[in-house]
Amino acid sequence: MGKTGFSLILALGLVTFSTSSERKCILSGDWQNDLGSNMTISAVNEVGQFSGLYLTAVSAAGKPIRVSPMNGAQHVDNLEQPTFGFTVKWSFSDSTTVFVGQCFVDDHGEETLQTMWLLREKAKSAENNWNATLVGTDVFTRLKGQNVGESMRSDL
Ligand code: BTN
Asked: What pTM does this model have?
């Protein structure tokens, strides 16, 4: 193989490698959504499980908002734009929210978590079950250079 052919293969290899490594997404870190809610996710383990803290900016509960624990899992078999899910058990209300979503990484390496959620409020009885679940979407972006996790842990 000539020098040019070898250089071409090397260049192609480098482009492929950089594209796939840029798209990887590990959920650990600090995130903020379109409502201004913050969450911090601790290390993701080898099977994709994680825990974290969530500070919502809004609430339907009419009570003082407090930092709440969350637990979830992401796919780690293929880290390119993985899907995930997590649950927030609200510390200040009887409600629970489940989020499902996918991490997308754009050409500049910017990550967004596109999520959909179900917020389950506590119904007084089965007759009131019909309107006890709210649904919505949230988009999270990664917070850089601000230690949100630290301040959330101190608010626990
Ligand atoms: C409650 O009101 O009982 C608990 C707080 C619920 C906050 C919801 S969960 C979905 C949406 N996304 C947020 O960041 N906050 C709201």
From this structure: 0.86
